[in-house]
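new request in #modeling-help
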Amino acid sequence: MASRPGDSVDLLAAGLGPRAVRDQFAREVSDDAILVRAAQEGDRAAFGRLYERYARMVHGVLLAKVPVSAVDDLLQDVFLRALRRLSTLRESGSFGAWLVTIARNLANDYHRRALPEEPLADDAPDSHLPDHDLGGGDPRAEHSGAKYGTAEHAASAAAILDAIRSLPDAYRETLILRLVEGLTGPEIAARTGLTHGSVRVNLHRGMEQLRAKLRPPASGGQLEQEMR
Amino acid sequence: MDPTNNKTDNEPLANRNDYLWDGSGVPDPEIRKLEALLRGFRHDRPAPVFPDIVPSRRWSFFPWRVRLFPVLSATAAVLFAIAAIIFLTHGTKPSPVAMAGWDVSRMAGTPRIGSTTVRANELPSRLGVGQVLETDDQSRASLRSEGIGQIEMEPSSRLRLLTMGKGLKRIALDRGTIHAFIWAPPGQFVVDTPSAMTVDLGCAYTLQVDDSGSGLVRTSLGWVGFKLHGHESFIPAGAACATRPKVGPGTPYFEDASAEFRAALKRFDFEDSTPQQRAADLVITLAQSRTGDALTLWHLLARVDDVQRALVYDRLSQIAPPPVGVTREGILGLDQPMLDLWWNALGFDDISVWRHWERSWSGTNTPDDK
């Protein structure tokens, strides 16, 4: 596989040799291709493996665009749609990028259906997160999709998520995949089809913008205190 | 600081662990905090039970697709035939990008390139070599070529693009009026008219051709050469020159010359009059000439007989004395270097530009040669 832009920079940071990086990426693509072909032949377990591999990525992509309460349903829709259309996927090695496209389209459809437009910030602390402890199985906490020990934590998390979702598209998706879903930069690149260089730039610039948003104008507020 | 690595250059290479990038190295406390706060949103649900997957089959095993193949083939063939017909039918439609030529824009009405109307609010159409651009009595058009210049075409005009080579860029104005502003190197842009060839020598000018083929050029900037066979006129800014079919360019004159001067000159140039009448018109012309009319008198030197040439020389010497190196005998003998020397002393452009053009394009046909 040819080296892609950004690979040399990635190698310095990751401490990997070019061969290791390329081999890892090639293995993932090759595995995807095998699983996709198996699924196309009716192997449901293979599709389950693909789900395990890509569910977090799709979840992150959706979380960047739709309210938390809608993410799980849409996640299932994405994979069901992918399953139904799997036979149309010609490049089995680009399953991840294909899945991302389906996820973005469904997220867009969600907003079109939700007219008058449902505000994305339904996860904001004022509207959904009560002041008391959400840790005791509060249904509203379950609805939000987040599990927190205290209301303050939940409010801070929702506020940070909203701050990320106010960033430009490329930054918000990449940051959510990294900070929420716990994917590393190389994993994000491998799954979304972006170059390592693009992912790195998105992460860095997105993080800078997020820091600026979280920085209080004068004295630290609750969010800033939470960050300390 | 490397904007893509989020590390300072002072850090040793071994410590360049990018926690944000891949979670390796010394954790960034701020990012760790964000991760801890946001982890609650992470996907952690088990895979749902997916429905059975209908195995995809190779299309060649689908009988209905096999049956569909001839239908698709026939459809493709029909579409191809339609595309070919459209291409052949409209193959001469001016294309905005495909061929070398002038970009044509509509200024008013419905100018046409061949049978195709140049419409408003469209990308400029392209006038290719061999194509004709026409305006009716309500239409105006603008032509532009980045390497040559810009032309505005008045109503009731007809223009053809003859060549677009590296050397001469040549159009023909069959009738009507164009205003040309040319930035191509002098001598490269040529307009054929039915009665003369107009050679741009670095200028802006207006060229009119009527239905009889007679023409008039009026120069507003720089100068223009008018040529038919060996008959040539140079028209500097502020001057005009008429042409007639079979006769060629007349004698140029400044438009602020007296009416008597211009009328006598017109009769002298174009009327089928007796030698006596011509001599009388020449006398009027000389008598009415001012200092600024040296342009006209210099041209007359080569258009009169020997006797008349002496008269012209004497008058021209009075209003614009010949420079050193120019003698009466030389001028009366039509010595070309002396004529050129005197022209250059009149304060117009250097005639060597024209001579160079003539040497370069000596084989260029004039309208009567075709």
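bot summary: Chain A touches chain B through 59 residues (CB under 8 Å).
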